[in-house]
Amino acid sequence: MSMRFDTALLHGSFKGDEATGATLIPIYQSSAFGQKTAEEIEKIFRNKAPGYAYSRISNPTVASFENRITYIEKGLASVAVSSGMAAIALTLLNISKAGDEIISKSSVFGGTLDFFKDIEKLGIKVHIVENITKEELEPLVNNRTKAVFAETIGNPKLDITDVKAAADLCHGFGLPFILDNTTATTYILRGIDLGADIIINSSSKYINGSSNSISGVITDSGNFKWTEEKYAVMGEYLKLGKFAFTAKLRNDTFRNFGSCLSPMNAYFNSLGLETLSLRMERHCENALLLAEALEGKEGVREVNYPLLKSSPYYDRAVNILGGKGGGIFTLRLYTKERAFAFINSLKYAVNITNIGDTKTLVIHPSSTIYAHSGEAEQAKAGVYEDLIRVSAGIEAIEDLKEDFLSALNCINEKLPPGGGRYV
Ligand SMILES: *Cc1c(COP(=O)(O)O)cnc(C)c1O
């Protein structure tokens, strides 16, 4: 009998600590692991025996977190790394070299767009498309193309990728589809079931849940056929078939770039993972109720949330995300000054560059996370001068509504920042 998702968060691939009966995996806060004999350590280094040698390569607390993620993602294997950006960087560097090309959707995370500029300097060209459609991909795909990259729910554009259609299309071109599922998480969308080949999570966000650790995870479905002809860069690992991607990542790219996850952070992530479903349910519910409360109010130019009927992605939110819109919405307030004053008037929502915390968070993306992008690039990513991104927390919705509606009242009445309301 297979476990249901909520049960798998707690029991999937995890039986507590066998040595002591502890209900959580201990934090093996150790850089290195001694073995009794030179023969044993040789075997570990040659992958001929299980075991641990050095925490940049592997660590029991980190491995436990990786196995739990692999289980809920229904993947072949996962590698946990130091950040979501490291997960994206290592994934792309694992399968490409100078002269190669990647195709990405335009609505991806600002840091990802910045990273694309960095790999262009290494000779890897990144083509940006608005949508993953045959019309947009066909003119760009050639034998140097190595992968297609997209996010499930674009942050902060909040467009929704039809993951199954995109994966099928990529496979038709002989390309792997890499899905950054950070904003949706596996609670909302099972990327591997829908055909995504590699799943990226910035576990700094909803998986950790309380913003206490930066980290990322790469999960390999094991389904993509890496061919000699196209992925010569994967060298000797190709003969491992479905294990090729993860084997190269573990033994080369991840190990040598040194972006390992600390055991303490892996422990916090495992702890957060256990309550993912409960939190996501509330994040989604609060985001919808707050977005609905603000839409159409005086002084609000637009509210964007996939589950609002006004969203062009409403049908996809219902059909692809199963009626869960995620925890993020955006609102436009006509001017940058009003957006700033609104943020300054909020009482509970924290002004911060993050998403997926238990607390409600707001940010003005245009002057922060998209500060390095030009106006045209910002518009493509759904970022405007008067736009605020909200990551709904799990507070009581009545308090959130009061907080946001009184901030709106403040700026509509042109009260000074803070409005004198809460001081
Ligand atoms: C935050 C984020 C990242 C980067 O993750 P870090 O852990 O901050 O490095 C990547 N993709 C998405 C969608 C994100 O929200």
Radius of gyration: 22 Å
Distance between the termini: 57 Å
Can you give the mean pLDDT? 95
What is the number of beta strands?
12
Biggest beta sheet summary: 7 strands, mixed
Low-confidence stretches: 419-423
Described by the principal axes of the CA atoms, the overall outline is globular
* Count of helix runs: 15
- Find the structural class using helix and strand composition: alpha/beta
Query: What percent of residues are in strands?
Result: 5-15%
Could you walk me through the main structural features you see in this protein, from its secondary elements to its overall organization?
The protein is α/β, with parallel strands linked by helices. 36% of the residues lie in helices and 13% in strands. Helix 5 links the parallel strand 2 and strand 3. Helix 1 runs antiparallel to helix 3, helix 4 crosses helix 9 and helix 11 runs parallel beside helix 15. It is globular and about 75 Å long. Bound molecules: pyridoxal-5'-phosphate (PLP).
